[in-house]
Specification:
This is DUF3990 domain-containing protein. With 155 residues, the chain is α+β, with helices and mostly antiparallel strands. It is built from five helices and seven strands.
Length: 155
């Protein structure tokens, strides 16, 4: 399977970087099977970026968590990760909480909307996908194929 990572730079050797803010599935290296989504990641600052491609070979000796769709478990997991709670999975896969969904999640965390209201708002969003790699063993499932320039004007 080919996976994509959008970035401001070419990433031949993926890394897990600790960042200022926690992401959906905590700190990790994030990819998607949707090239257009990765192109948006690459050009999100309106400048030139790169669509990095990887051959992904699953290793079933690793600890996986897969969410087939947005669910109660998915929401609870993202709330925990974005609140700074680590997990023990090597690889986590599922829908992405894009900017709009992120705002709904933050409103839910802050008590501004109910869980029912979150689901009512979330159901109108387009499909997304992310797969995050959280350990060196997980990163070993990726083999760099190449990169292409994304000019920042792509939507």
């Amino acid at each position: 399977m080919i996976l994509y990572h959008g970035s401001r730079e070419i990433v031949k050797y993926p890394e897990i970087r600790k960042a200022q803010y926690h992401k959906d599935f905590y700190f990790g290296f994030y990819c998607t099977k949707l090239p257009n989504q990765a192109k948006r990641w690459a050009s999100r600052y309106g400048i030139k970026g790169y669509l990095n491609s990887y051959e992904y070979t699953p290793n079933y000796e690793l600890k996986y968590l897969i969410f087939e769709e947005m669910s109660e478990e998915w929401l609870d997991f993202i709330v925990e990760c974005r609140s700074g709670k680590p997990h023990t999975y090597d690889i986590v896969e599922g829908p992405m909480a894009d900017d709009t969904i992120y705002n709904y999640i933050q409103n839910y965390i802050d008590g501004k909307i109910s869980r029912a209201a979150f689901w009512e708002l979330a159901k109108f969003n387009h499909p997304t996908h992310q797969i995050s790699f959280h350990t060196i063993s997980a990163l070993d499932t990726l083999k760099y194929i190449g990169s292409e320039v994304v000019d920042g004007s792509e939507k």
